[in-house]
């Protein structure tokens, strides 16, 4: 049996299976299936993994990772839903797609887990929230935790939180990259060479995230530590508040949550 068959080897599918390879999985444990034969061939060549048509590959899979766009899920499940091996596990990372929809697309009794990872999986620093379906046991959750734990941290949440999780951590890297872009542009605006501004911004984000995670201190405390009375940071934060940055983040997360609900 193939340990993992990836159906939809785009950005997220590749991020996960390449992370698994980096963590020590053998290429022979993985088969990738994508809509385009050239993409399958390219991935097979680059990583040494197997490749094939989804409809054939899933019949021999221990776990099927579903990583196609939400709009393609219905068609893909029609194609592969009744081809999964009787005890195979379906693991979906598709935004907004509910466990009920996934379970309705496979044979009765098939274990299903819904998950929301993020692209830092590419460097082993993802955070993934998983929600087990009706027939997923602790052993299935352990298998999912082993797969997604190879590319970062894993937490379990009730399915009702998945759309909100998507809005915070699934989409979250994009918010951070936007902040990075803006900080770099700010540096260039005040006269720094672009490469210097980039190094300063990237290491500042990395260092700040590490400080936040490793100390466990509340972000407000860490922000206060940087903010000298009447100093430079206070002047900058005043401008950010004037421009409604905090409110913009609240609205953005809410919009992402609502869009996830719509996608489902
Ligand atoms: N990108 C992200 O940050 C995150 C994405 N997700 C979720 O992951 C899923 C994939 O997203 P992402 O990787 O960004 O999207 P991509 O478009 O990069 O990947 C989807 C892949 O699925 C392929 N595909 C389409 N139809 C089929 C089919 N019938 N059989 C096999 N493969 C097929 C596509 O091929 P082709 O290009 O030829 O159409 C494409 O390579 C989405 O559901 C998304 O919600 C979850 C967390 C984070
Ligand atoms: O933008 C999206 O819909 C996907 C889901 C989370 C991140 N990317």
UniProtKB/TrEMBL annotation:
Reactions that this protein is recorded to catalyse: L-proline + NAD(+) = (S)-1-pyrroline-5-carboxylate + NADH + 2 H(+); L-proline + NADP(+) = (S)-1-pyrroline-5-carboxylate + NADPH + 2 H(+)
Pathway where it operates: Amino-acid biosynthesis; L-proline biosynthesis; L-proline from L-glutamate 5-semialdehyde: step 1/1
Highest rank taxon of the organism: Bacteria
Entry EC no(s): 1.5.1.2
GO molecular function: pyrroline-5-carboxylate reductase activity
Coiled coil ranges: none
PROSITE patterns given in the database record: P5CR
Subcellular location: Cytoplasm
Keywords: Amino-acid biosynthesis, Cytoplasm, NADP, Oxidoreductase, Proline biosynthesis
Enzyme class name: oxidoreductase
Domain Pyrroline-5-carboxylate reductase dimerisation: 159-263
Record-annotated Pyrroline-5-carboxylate reductase catalytic N-terminal domain positions: 4-96
InterPro entries in the record: 6-PGluconate_DH-like_C_sf, NAD(P)-bd_dom_sf, P5C_Rdtase_cat_N, P5CR-like_CS, P5CR_dimer, Pyrroline-COOH_reductase
Stated family: Belongs to the pyrroline-5-carboxylate reductase family.
Purpose of the protein: Catalyzes the reduction of 1-pyrroline-5-carboxylate (PCA) to L-proline.
Designated name of the protein: Pyrroline-5-carboxylate reductase
Native organism taxonomy: Bacteria, Bacillati, Actinomycetota, Actinomycetes, Propionibacteriales
């Amino acid at each position: 049996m193939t340990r993992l068959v990836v159906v939809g080897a785009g950005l997220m599918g590749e991020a996960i299976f390449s992370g698994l390879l980096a963590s020590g999985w053998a290429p022979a444990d993985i088969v990738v299936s994508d809509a385009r034969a050239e993409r399958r061939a390219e991935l097979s060549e680059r990583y040494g993994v197997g490749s094939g048509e989804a409809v054939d590959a899933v019949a021999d899979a221990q776990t099927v990772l579903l990583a196609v766009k939400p709009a393609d899920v219905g068609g893909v499940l029609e194609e592969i839903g009744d081809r999964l091996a009787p005890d195979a596990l379906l693991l979906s990372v598709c935004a907004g797609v509910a466990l009920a929809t996934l379970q309705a697309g496979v044979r009765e009794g098939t274990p299903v887990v819904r998950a929301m990872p993020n692209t830092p999986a590419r460097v082993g620093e993802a955070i993934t929230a998983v929600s087990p379906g009706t027939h997923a046991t602790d052993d299935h959750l352990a298998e999912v935790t082993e797969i997604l734990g190879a590319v970062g941290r894993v937490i379990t949440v009730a399915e009702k939180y998945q759309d909100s999780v998507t809005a915070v951590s699934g989409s979250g890297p994009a918010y951070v990259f936007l902040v990075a872009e803006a900080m770099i542009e700010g540096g260039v605006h005040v006269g720094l060479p672009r490469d210097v501004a980039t190094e300063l911004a990237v290491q500042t984000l990395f260092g700040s995230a590490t400080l936040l995670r490793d100390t466990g201190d509340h972000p407000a405390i860490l922000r206060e530590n940087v903010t000298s009375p009447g100093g430079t940071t206070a002047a900058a934060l005043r401008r950010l508040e004037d421009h409604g940055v905090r409110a913009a983040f609240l609205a953005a997360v809410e919009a992402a949550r609502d869009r996830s609900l719509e996608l489902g």
